[in-house]
Design a protein that fits this description.
Layout: H1 3-35, E1 39-43, E2 48-52, E3 58-63, H2 72-100, H3 107-119, E4 130-132
Antiparallel strand pairs: 1-2, 1-4, 2-3
Helix pairs in contact: 2-3
Amino acid sequence: MSPYDIDAAEDWLDGWTASVSAQAERAAVLSRRVAALTGSAQSSDGSIKVTVGSSGQVEKLELDDRVHQVRGPELAERIVSVMRQAQARLARQVSVEVEQTVGSDTETGRAVIHSFETRFPEAERGDGQERDDAGR
């Protein structure tokens, strides 16, 4: 084995190590960004507002007095529907963060996006009662 082969192997190993370290740093940045995300949505009349945290858990639920006019089972259904809209919005935000950090074409990126899209799929709008906090 010539010294050139050893030098080439060392160069390759150094490059590979640097690449792995850079990807690990991008993954750590992604983790911090995702941990800080929230998703919000509200019913079209604004009587129900839900904010979910980075793991999809409800962090804030706001109900105004109009909900007293709605029967319990229907109110529960509306709350869950708005919550799902907030979770779907969270999943969309995670996809943006993945693209900006590790890339959606990486194994890490695909895994993170798949995890959020599987847990929080895009909810159907049904009767049009829900919208996100941007009015969509």
